[in-house]
Amino acid sequence: MFGDLFEEDGDGFSSTPGTGKPVKGRECEPPPPRGKVQLCGIKNQGGTCYLNSLIQTLLFTPELREELFSLGPDELGCLADKDNPEAKVRVIPLELQSLFARLLLADEQTASTTDLTDSFGWTNNEEMAQQDVQELNRILFSALESSLVDTSGSRLIHRLYHGTLVNQITCKECGNISERQEDFLDLTVSVRGVSGLEEALWNMFVEEELFEGNNLYRCSKCDQLVRAAKSAKLRDLPPFLTISLLRFNFDFAKCERYKETGSYVFPLTFNLRAFCEQSNWSDSEYSYELFSVIIHKGGCYGGHYHVYIKDVDQLGHWEAPDEDVKVKTKTWRQEARVTEDKSEIENSVDADDPLSVLTAILAQEESNSVLVDQLGQKLLNKTGTPWSKKYKKQYGTISKFLQSHPEVFLLVSNGTRVALKSAAPAAAESVSTEPFSPTAAVTETTEAEASDTSDGCHWFDLNDSTVTAITEKDIEKQFQGKESAYMLFYRKSTMKRPQEAIGNAGYKVPPHLLEMVQEENARLLQRRTEFDATSNSIEVRLHLAPRYRCENGALHPTAPNNDSIITVTFDRRQTVGDLRLAVYQMQDLWDGDMALTVAKNVPAGLHLYDTLTDDQMSLYSAGVCNGTDLFVWNGREVNGVTMQTGAEWEPVLLTVFRPSAEQLGCEDESGVGEGDADGLVRSMKAFAGGATLGTVLEALGPQEALLCQEQSRPGADGGGASGWKVFPPQDLQRTLRDLSLKDGDALLLLQPKELDSSIFNMNGDIVTVTTPSDCRWLQVEFCPRSGMQEEDAEQDKRRSKVSASGNMLLSEVKAKALEGLQLLDKLNGLECCLRQTDRSGKRLPPVHEHLSVRDAGIRLMTSLFLCPGPAPTAQQLFLYFSVGLAPSDGQELEVTVEESLTVKECLKKMLLMARLEGDSWHLRRVDWCEEIGEPLMDENASLKEAKVLHGDTLVLVEGQLPPKGYLKLSVRMSMDPFDSSSVPELYQEFPTECSGSEMRFVGYVEISEEASLDDFKTQVTTLPALHDVCVPSPAFLRVWMLEGRKLARILRGKQQTLRKLKLGNGAEVCVQRLMKEEDLGLKDLLLTVQMGVPGEKAYYPAEEFLWDAGRDGTARGLYAALATQYGLTPDNLLLAKHLPDKHTWMPVSNWTQQVSKRKKKRKAEGLQAAPFYLKDGDIIGVKNLLIDTNKEFSTVQDEIGQQRLREEAANHKTRENAGSGDCTQNTGPKKSGPTKNRKPEVALSINVGLFR
Questions:
Q1: Which residue stretches belong to region Disordered (predicted)?
Q2: DSSP line for 912-942
Q3: Strand pairing report for 863-868 and 777-782
Q4: Four-point Cα dihedral 521, 527, 531, 534, nearest 10
């Protein structure tokens, strides 16, 4: 187990004593300094709590520690030479010296035993497996004895821990005494059937075992069987007496091990005179006092160790626990004043105000402070109602409530104790060396402290990394139970510590170890300083008012670039005034007042919220964090426009529809906004959320106009009807927020005279907009050849309105247009094609004539152009291309190619048309802003495989393809109704390739794998397909990873690189547009929650729910979060997770096992683990048991899906039986799966080299 003392595994091992293994990757947070207790804990490596408890016991055995420190490098060697095979380095004693020095002097809360366990030769498996501390005590001492051979400390363990006992048999006939002497390292005493340690020792060393009757003893002197008495006595007593308690036994009836948990009393001090062979020594030679108790918590197959230790050198800072703090003396005037204050507070308490109740509880405490864990019980005693039922729903947990009122409450002792700020001790701001003082005026000695400090030494509980102060009364709690004493360590009362050792942690520590720890402390201090500066540095984005304009109810930059934003790095501990002064210095030309206002990007633009007015307040207290947007202005207006600030004035971006000129039968096609397929003109308008609907109507049109809200959308083919509800007159006085209008909601503005047309029909308060399919048309205009003169071309221009529907083929539209324009004879067999134009007048690619009007994405009541040239077939692509420059900078060329053509063949054809030569050319796409974009990487792929679409623009670029290290990601977009209405052409241009109709392919992104997630989102917004999608900032996009064309997980961390997010080349992602900024934490889960319809096998529309699984990832935590969401109690909810592949629901139980108060509850398993494996996007069904008695979650669709799965399984089984024939007829019954057996216990072992 401990391996070879001379050989070490050199992989990743630090040669510097005490530094441990080096940390790979970026620098982590430095360890915190020591707490108030001033004692150092030990990190648990997974299952080394038994080692930690024993190491702490040895550390607080000063005589052993100092003897070990007295061994210098001349005897033990040096750790720097441990890799030298010729050097004799005694690794275990050296590592113990180094660990002891760090535990005593290093300024950190916890120390690591990694170097020590490496010197033992332990692997990760051994560090994770728990062993018996009694066995470790013996083999560690044996290893030390072997390691210290031929040194001055060779008899160290023997001198301090070894004792001698003698077994005697006395003949009752002749009085002859036969004896046998034994050495012991520790005494193992029985627990079963005895009441305590003294009774067990009495049975071992006082009671005699008689040999009589059939059990006689053969005396060597009498040479016959005689009556005799057997006894044992202690002959030599060691300075330190170690006692092991036999807590574990074996039940032969049940054939299993068990742990003795009955009461077993042991004294703090006791006298061994009655148990010793010699009785003429002085009484002090028999006296021992307890200084360490190793405690085992758990059962016989596992558990946890920690240790109670008496600080004999008084190295720690002890404070009496709150329950033992009692005021010893007070004057009668103070008592009268306190009584009067209590009565006043009692009369003024408001039971509905938790702040008043908690303040009264703390004010009535004599110590003015209470443990946070006990505050809830005191509140229950005072009000009769627990915090969880009366206040938790509104205010959260009691700890969160205390932290949210720092002006009233002060958390001390590492957050475990709370006091009123007016009565808080002055020592709370700095580490005090005195125990906690209950009052600021009088320093009083408490009864608990007086009883526990008779010799000035106090007790501490060292539980791995945690060190807490305890009293001697706490030791009595370890007499019995699942958590009880397992090993006892006593020291002779005559062993007194020298005065210079009291409170001196560096006493007898060798100079080279002192120097090592001082260097380590200096490094820790530097790391903490650097980390403190780094962790408090925040980036603040400053938006300068002169570079913004007010438009559509929000602020927008005057220039499209990022010059309007200045990013500065600032220390959040500095004040608002410091930041204001820094901005003044940056803006030399600023004149007048300067206001700093918190801003936020909303769909309408940039909105202003709270202005930072207190220059003395720190940025942290003012709520300024990393990434905060601050608007710099004069506090009144921006470029002459008065700005309203605050959440109540947050703009709401509305979609406003008006009748188009065509719908009203007007020849004038003038209108504002973009025409929709149903003949309505759409525009985006923003209004303050606090504005009334009447104000909106006044801004949009005349007062007599009708304002309607959308209720239903028309059919998918553009025909049918849409319903709009007219706002009643009383709603004109209500605000947009009161009417629950949100970003993206649609409004229709109608004048009363427009209701006379056949398009609009009003019935009650519902307006129906009807657009009959048989009234649709397309206008076709003939465009002559580009080489003709302008006069001839103008004469040849002809227009014809062709009646059309969404299902009509474009070839039929062309035939009707040729007939209506009378061009059949003029063209004389020349080929022609139909083309559209964009807003700038550019001709779009010819349409595929085998498609229908709807499938080609052509809107009715628009114009097409009949142009010379062949129309592409279904297997052909029409492409634009230019040479070397973006299309906006040069002349575009056009080419029609087969989609099966490879990228390389297409490149050659374009080079031939452009009359270019050479092999150093490649093709690139053109992005949405008509600039050169990503290259086509796979030249051997076909144009179809390369995702080159009909009408794409390519650029011939001279040079080789870009190097590796770039990712080509396929991007799809999840479309909601708001998105589909804003960008209808996106639905028509990109056919879906996923299951369902919610994701649409929008393009590819080529980006470096070292780019951040924010950079990727920014590049996604530049895709041509999204040029009409409004995304104020990357935070308005959510990115999903797709697996099998299904949403798998959300990518988190704005600054995480794509490589760390494990995105590979060719990966598919889906972006989702949000209506507000989102920055998910690593522990947040985005769930889809749907509430069941009472009494039906159906659910209300689903909604997203963000659950902080890091706070409480168990079923109880999910129940509590959803109960808060729906305003119910957790007991009134029933939850289940939907399994779409099986069409079933897995109930999520909120039941927890009831256990006694003395036993701690077993830690609940998180829902992200087995069997639920909860992840982003999972569907959670919710049942409200108050109104829904149906506890079944399955729907009709689930039952249909289950029936289909059963039929498929039956068909599959039939096919298997048919294929197997008769070979399965003689097979025996199936064997049950193997049972899981407990792993065999592996005992500790040791192999120590020789030092001779």
A1: 1-32, 1211-1244
A2: HHTT---S-EEEEEE-TTSSEEEE---TTSB
A3: parallel
A4: 140
Question: Which position among 49, 457, 994, 1030 bears the catalytic label?
Answer: 49
- DSSP-based three-state secondary structure for 269: strand
Of 761, 748, 616, which is closest to residue 681 (Cα–Cα)? 748
Angle between the N-to-C axes of helices 91-105 and 62-69, in degrees from 0 to 180, rounded to the nearest 10: 120
Which residues make Cβ contacts (< 8 Å) with residue 934, sequence separation at least 6? 924, 925, 927, 968, 1004, 1005, 1006
pLDDT of residue 1155: 44
- 300 tagged catalytic: no
Task: Tell whether the torsion through CA atoms of 508, 513, 517 and 518 is positive or negative.
Answer: positive
Q: What is the pLDDT of residue 224?
A: 86
| pLDDT one-digit tens code per residue, 413-447 | 666 778 886 543 333 333 333 333 333 333 333 44
Of 251-260, 757-766, 1117-1126, the least confident: 757-766
Cβ(1154)–Cβ(1161) below 8 Å: no
Closest CA to 659 of 679, 684, 685, 674: 679
Q: Are strands 953-958 and 876-883 parallel, antiparallel or unpaired?
A: parallel
Which has the closest alpha carbon to 1240: 2, 486, 301?
301
Question: Hey, what amino acid is at 1171?
Answer: P
Using DSSP bridges, classify how beta strands 1068-1073 and 966-974 pair: parallel, antiparallel or unpaired: parallel
Q: Which two tokens stand for residue 116?
A: 């020590």
* Non-local CB neighbours of 1099 within 8 Å, separated by 6+ positions: 1090, 1091, 1092, 1093, 1181, 1195
Got the DSSP string for 687-736?
EETTSBHHHHHHHHS-TTSEEEEEEE---TTS-SEEEEEEPPGGGGGSBT
User: How far is residue 453 CA from its own chain's centroid?
Assistant: 45
**Which residue among the candidates 78, 222, 300, 304 is catalytic per the annotation?**
304
Task: Please list, residue by residue across 133-145, b when 16 or more beta carbons sit within 10 angstroms of its beta carbon and e when fewer do.
Answer: bbebbbbbbebbb
Q: Is 3 left (phi over 0), alpha (psi -120 to 50) or beta?
A: left
Q: Express each pLDDT in 382-401 by its tens digit.
A: 777 777 777 877 787 887 78
Question: Cis omega before residue 93 (within 30°)?
Answer: no
Whether 552 and 654 have beta carbons less than 8 Å apart is answered as no
- The C-alpha angle with vertex 1246 and arms to 1241 and 1248, in degrees rounded to 5, equals 170
d(CA 689, CA 649): 5
Residue 1247 burial (CB count, 10 A): 12
pTM of the predicted protein model: 0.48
- CA gap 782, 435 in Å, rounded: 97
| Sign of the four-CA dihedral 623, 627, 629, 630 | positive
- The three-class DSSP label of residue 547 is helix
Residue 1048 CA from chain centroid, whole number: 17
Residue 1196: strand, helix, or coil:
helix
49 is catalytic: yes
